[in-house]
Amino acid sequence: MLRRRNLYRRFLILSFILALAVVLISPELQKKPLRWLEVPIGGAVYYVQQGTYAVLNGIGRVWYGYINLIHVRQENEQLRAEVERLRGENNLLKEEGALGERLQTILEYKQSAPFGLVAASVIGREPTHWFRTIIINKGETDGVKVDMGVITPAGVVGKVIKTGPHHAQILLMTDRSSAVAAIVQRTRDEGIVQGMEDGAIRLKYLPHFSEVVVGDILVTSGLEGSFAKGLKVGEIEKVEKKEHELFLQVKVTPQIDFSKLEEVLVITSTGEAHEKLGTGTVR
Question: pTM of the prediction?
Answer without folding.
Answer: 0.64
